[in-house]
């Protein structure tokens, strides 16, 4: 290969590279609403993965043939206690714990697309996942946006915001874009 051609080669950033892997992990999702994948990277090594899906050895939405939250017309970002699935971020953290992997100082990548039409969704963790990410000691959250861009949050920013304001005042809340699109808010 001519070395001049190599100079024009565009190389993905590390964040784009890892988000692409998270997107692929999400293809295993068993949620009627979303296909989401998460990976956790520490010291430039993938240490855990997770996708949206029912708890191990239980029936998922595809096996049951419906989404309980859709049937009840529950908006995105609310009432997770009756969802059959575990979020991708939660599964990645759980899978790391099952393997005895330390997550302190790591980064978590999340990519979510609609299971209905394949359109990308702003990948922002819900409040439950944000709390788990903070308590796991993860340093950065990197998510894809509906425009296909990379959005980065420092978890310390969440901690600082919640120390001064209440959690509900969080300006980046999961589901806002999807609920507007589906007329649920």
Helix and strand topology:
Elements: H1 3-7, H2 14-26, E1 34-42, E2 45-51, H3 61-64, H4 68-71, H5 88-99, E3 107-114, E4 120-121, H6 127-135, E5 140-144, E6 150-154, H7 155-164, H8 176-182
Parallel strand pairs: 3-5
Antiparallel strand pairs: 1-2, 1-3, 3-4, 5-6
- Average pLDDT, all residues: 88
Anisotropy-based shape: globular
Helix/sheet category: alpha+beta
- Number of H- or I-type helical stretches: 8
Strand elements, count: 6
User: Helix coverage percent of residues?
Assistant: 25-40%
Report on the biggest sheet. 6 strands, mixed
**Taking Cα atoms only, what radius of gyration do you get, to the nearest Å?**
17 Å
H/E series, N to C?
Answer: HHEEHHHEEHEEHH
Runs in which pLDDT lies below 50 for 5 or more consecutive residues are none
Indicate the proportion of strand residues: 15-25%
Distance between the termini: 55 Å
What is shown here, in short?
Helices cover 35% and strands 19% of the residues. It is an alpha+beta fold.
Q: What does this entry look like structurally?
A:
The chain has helices at 3-7, 14-26, 61-64, 68-71, 88-99, 127-135, 155-164, 176-182, and strands at 34-42, 45-51, 107-114, 120-121, 140-144, 150-154. It is α+β, with helices and mostly antiparallel strands. The longest helix has 13 residues, at 14-26. The protein is globular.
Tags for this model:
185 residues; alpha+beta; six-stranded mixed sheet
């Amino acid at each position: 290969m001519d070395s001049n051609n190599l100079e024009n080669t565009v190389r993905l950033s590390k964040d784009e590279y890892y988000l692409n892997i998270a997107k692929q992990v999400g293809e295993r999702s068993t949620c009627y609403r979303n296909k989401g994948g998460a990976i956790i990277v520490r010291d430039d090594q993938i240490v855990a993965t997770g996708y949206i899906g029912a708890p191990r050895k239980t029936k998922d939405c595809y096996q049951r043939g419906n989404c309980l939250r859709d049937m009840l017309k529950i908006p995105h970002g609310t009432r997770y206690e009756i969802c059959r699935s575990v979020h991708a971020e939660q599964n990645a953290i759980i899978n790391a714990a099952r393997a005895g992997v330390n997550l302190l100082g790591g980064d978590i990548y999340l990519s979510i697309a609609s299971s209905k039409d394949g359109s990308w969704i702003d990948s922002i963790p819900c409040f439950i996942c944000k709390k788990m990410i903070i308590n796991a000691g993860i340093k950065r959250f990197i998510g894809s946006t509906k425009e296909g861009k990379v959005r980065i949050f420092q978890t310390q920013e969440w901690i600082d915001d919640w120390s001064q304001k209440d959690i509900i005042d969080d300006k980046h809340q999961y589901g806002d874009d999807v609920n507007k699109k589906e007329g649920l808010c």
